[in-house]
Amino acid sequence: MTQTPATPSRRTRLSTEREHELYEAVLELLREHGYESLTMDAVAARTRASKATLYRQWQGKPRLVATALRHAKTAAQPDPDTGSLRGDLLELARCGMRDAEHDHALMRGLAHAAHANPELHQALRELLVLPEAERLEALLQQAVERGEVAAGTPALEFVPHMFFGAFIGRDLIEGRPPDLDYLTSYLDAVVLPALGIR
Amino acid sequence: MTQTPATPSRRTRLSTEREHELYEAVLELLREHGYESLTMDAVAARTRASKATLYRQWQGKPRLVATALRHAKTAAQPDPDTGSLRGDLLELARCGMRDAEHDHALMRGLAHAAHANPELHQALRELLVLPEAERLEALLQQAVERGEVAAGTPALEFVPHMFFGAFIGRDLIEGRPPDLDYLTSYLDAVVLPALGIR
């Protein structure tokens, strides 16, 4: 638990540093209490921000939490650029694994909460799932431009689905979390062949 | 809501019909109350069974519920046998869709409950997920024997994961449930090419 310095003079317009502090504090509180027990009061107290500021900026808990998670993800992960689709996808998988291991309990808790909370579901979809799908799309586009994958290959639009299946399926079918060996096998057995790369 | 006739003379050793009645009653109660609010007392009352019988036979609520779902699935779905892997997989997808539509709210509720309940998670995995994975494996084995898929194709072991990805990914990425057109496209774009069928 780090201490979050207060900067009361910047309550209305948030600087990048102040936003970063706020997101860090939200993630800390999430790890401590879980989503259901996290209150905007606790965020306001920990960050010495006014609740009015929090609501003005993020509307409510679902968007604040999803934005904090998005922020942590973006800060940690530059776009992969290894020169090959296999390398890029492995790099993404490696980052996904690291995130999943680092905040496994937190993400499970959020998935649980999102089942019963459409607003949180929507915020997570919009701020975590869709940006990841777009990142993937950009990598695939580069592979098409390099001539690694034929333009119009039908599997292109399903690559995010394949990856979700890999992450979720391991847990569901084999009863254990994915690791890098497993994801590498899946990439070589499923994703690349479906894209016509063997 | 159908009425479940009581057969009090068969409390200790359950006939197939009696088991069927019991499972139907459990599913009815599940649809009415959801998993969390379902009690073994309610099951005992609705089915005029003793709680001792219920616990002796199914240990507790998680296994009773998972077994009832399994029973409904098996009763409704004969193994597909269309003569081609594409036909068989489409048939499975069609059945999966029908189940998903029929009991969408119930299955979402169960997935939610399973997040917080390892015993339920385990029972659903053992009685619903793994038997489906095995069914799929049997169909794939037949396709290998027919010469449609080369033995040892690496994607063979990941077909269940691909399908889970298709079902879950649509909802997560596109924000809507899968339909048959979508599953057909996914089969033709991902599953069959990964297996070397184009």
Automatic annotation (TrEMBL), chains A, B:
Keywords: DNA-binding, Transcription, Transcription regulation
Superkingdom to which the source organism belongs: Bacteria
Alphabetical list of Pfam families matching this protein: TetR_C_11, TetR_N
Gene3D superfamilies in the cross-refs: Homeodomain-like, Tetracycline Repressor, domain 2
Family annotation (PROSITE patterns): HTH_TETR_2
DNA-binding residues (ranges): 39-58
Domain HTH tetR-type intervals: 16-76
Name of the featured protein: TetR/AcrR family transcriptional regulator
Species of provenance: Streptomyces polyrhachis
